[in-house]
Amino acid sequence: MKRSLPLLWRRINERYNLVGSICQTCNTPYFPSRKICPKCRRKGKLISQKMPNEGKIFTFTQVHAAPAGFEHETPYFMAIIQLKNDVKVLAQLVDSPVEKVKIGANAKMVFRKIYEDNHEGAIAYGYKFKIV
Amino acid sequence: MRGVSVIGTGLTKFGEHWSVGFRELITEAAVKSIEDANIEGKEIQAIFGGTMASGSFIGQEHIGALIADQLGMNPIPSIRMEAACASGSVALRSAYFAVASGMYDVVAVGGVEKMTDISTEEAATALGGAGDQEWELFLGATFPALYALLARRHMLEYGTTEEQMASVSVKNHANGVLNPYAQFQKEITIDEVMNSGYIASPLKLLDCSPITDGAASLILCASEKARKYTDLPIEIVGTGQASDTLALSNRANMTELNATKEAAKQAYSQAKVDSSKISLAEVHDCFSIAEILAIEDLGFFSKGQGGKASMDGRTALNSDISINTSGGLKACGHPVGATGIKQVCEVVWQLRNEAGKRQVEGAEYGLTHNVGGSGATAVVNILKRAD
Ligand SMILES: [Zn+2]
């Protein structure tokens, strides 16, 4: 799917720095950021909050059949990382030896290229994780 | 609210239909359902259609108008509903509300998807729209990958094995052999599934439902008037629908689909039955793990026991509970917008005793379970013989 430059630009803070939000009323952190706290609704007060950049693998898969833009990377790991504040984030795993990819393994955020759009030459960057 | 019954069913053969397009598919299914209901067509007061991604698959939107036009039914109202792979079921629920409210007596409900006019890669991208485009697909996730993440968690927490998941596909292919509408009418073995190659580990090619063309149609009628048309109306005695976060990672629990549990609770409560009364169910097995989650979340087996129950043959035809007698999404095929309506066709045929070689004996209640995306929408319907 083709993605416009404004669409990539709009999410830079979230994708580059793992910035989500936290509800000041109930102290629940969210990633990606939300405008409404599902727990507090109108009583909620959400402000920006940087997520911790470390966590543990909650679940993972190795993708062999890739979508357009990712064909050259197969097979690659995708994992849901449970961050230190318990927020879960889906991300690609990179620079991680196969034998270390396990549920419970410690992982740390790294900054990488996500994909290159051949049509417009736009390169999307963002977070990935690696096993530490 | 008044009762609503199914008085007509129509289904096309599911498969790769090179010579037939979207219009021909939905027209064939609709005409069959009108003939089955033994009506002329002029009794139909409104049309509700479900299709997921016609814009991506065939470049056509405005599907409600297209269907009414093709069926020669102008100027009656006709709309299209969308909820990813549950599009057919949400169209059915809208039709149900329209009849139950007293607004209409007779309506048509269609589900259709024409998926093979574009390449497999393009189709996979279109289907990806059922997930979260910005926080899943953008990052390289695929649809099988999302269910693989659920599978791996279920394996860890409950000891579910890849062989147990494979047994779901084996059972659904065995049922598909008995269904002339099924895309695959061929038995497969556990070994064949295990050796079919990873798509997104631990899911392999034969854990995944295929890309399919097909359409299905129903005629619904107010139960109080249904006997004017048929001696054996099948009543929709319970219906439920629920939602969850679009992205998987934002859910607390990843060994269940909470939307399924919530939708089931609504349907069981309205039907005044529990899961023990259900003789057969068409559940949403877009991937083998999805059937295991479904039979647990619907209450047929306790949490964590779905894999073992499948392996032990407890979901086979005429066993503890007959699951996916049509062959399910895996063997019957999965033209996404049509699936929810096909499930109801199958249950109606079973309850009417018209299911031929795959007939479930003595069924009084049947259930359908249709999921959109990785569980952000779920619909559960319960049907009953109205003898
Ligand atoms: Zn809050």
Structure commentary:
The complex is a heterodimer of chains A (132) and B (387). Chain A is 9% helix and 42% strand. Chain A has 132 residues and is mainly beta. Chain A folds into two domains: 5-16 and 53-131, OB fold (Dihydrolipoamide Acetyltransferase, E2P) (Beta Barrel); 19-51. The radius of gyration of chain A is 16 Å and the shape is globular. Chain A starts with a helix and ends with a strand. Chain B folds into two domains: 4-118 and 212-234, 3-Layer(aba) Sandwich (Peroxisomal Thiolase, Chain A, domain 1); 126-209 and 236-385, Thiolase/Chalcone synthase (Peroxisomal Thiolase, Chain A, domain 1, 3-Layer(aba) Sandwich). A ten-stranded mixed beta sheet of chain B has the order 3-2-4-7-1-8-12-11-9-10, sandwiched between helices. In chain B, helix 4 packs across helix 14 (336-351) and helix 7 (162-177) crosses helix 11 (288-297). The longest helix of chain B has 16 residues, at 143-158. Chain B starts with a strand and ends with a strand. Classes of the chains: A mainly beta (132), B alpha/beta (387). At the A-B interface, strand 4, strand 5 and strand 6 of A face helix 5, helix 6 and strand 5 of B. The structure holds zinc ion. The site of zinc ion has 8 residues of chain A, from loops. Residues 23, 25-26, 28, 37, 39-40, 44 of chain A line the site of zinc ion (ZN).
